[in-house]
Amino acid sequence: MTESSFCPATRGGDGLGALIGKKLFVAGGGSGMGAAIARLAAARGAHVALAGRSRAKLDGVAATLRDKAIATHAIDLSDQDAVTGAVAAEGPFDHIVTTAGDLTFKPLVDLSEDEINRMLASRFWGPVNIARAAATHLVATGSLIFVSGLAGYRPSAGSAVVGALNLALESLAMGLALELRPRRVNVISPGVIDTPLWSGMGKAERKAFHDRVAAELPAGRIGTVEDIAHAAISLMENGFMTGSVVHVDGGGRIA
């Protein structure tokens, strides 16, 4: 094997500079992990389209991308026609990511039908609709990335539905990796990440929670949205990863 065998340019375009000029669609791009992925991808040279529920949040993120923002789409991800229309508007894309998740951590018997339906809409029907759009509007060398979560592996009281949806999403991704090939389909499974998910807690309560989790983790800290963004970029750039779940949880599964 020669040295050139390891050159990114000879391995399907993977590696440094692989995102320059590429087109990325981020569902859930108005805040948190989605916004962080959009910013890092734009910094790496990608052109980014954003989708989510809040027009104001999407436009705020787009303003930080300078000339790398393609468009913003304020849509409901459970609406198949709206999702397909948004992806088709600037497609085809090289990479599509969905980080959206309207999650409620409560015991099953305490969850309202509306809360369960909102979780299904964002964590199941959203990815399904994104995948349907990707089948037509994702290039053959492209990738689709979902976001699941640690609750699927480390259940706790109040996480039964969230955990079930996370594992269902991972199973969906593995099946899609076969159905959509050669397009790649992967999943990022975050642990406890400092995102707006915890905004319902008071500041002191949230800090105490984060400190308690950090003390239990092998990594010694909770995660940041930048940690998730780097994992997403790695999955985009590595053309030999598909049907994979990347755990970015600070060791949460083994703690």
From TrEMBL:
NCBIfam families: PRK07041.1. GO terms for molecular function: oxidoreductase activity. PANTHER family: DIHYDROANTICAPSIN 7-DEHYDROGENASE. It comes from Ectorhizobium quercum. Keywords: Oxidoreductase. Belongs to the short-chain dehydrogenases/reductases (SDR) family. This is SDR family oxidoreductase. Pfam families: adh_short_C2. Coiled coil: none annotated. The lineage of its organism: Bacteria, Pseudomonadati, Pseudomonadota, Alphaproteobacteria, Hyphomicrobiales.
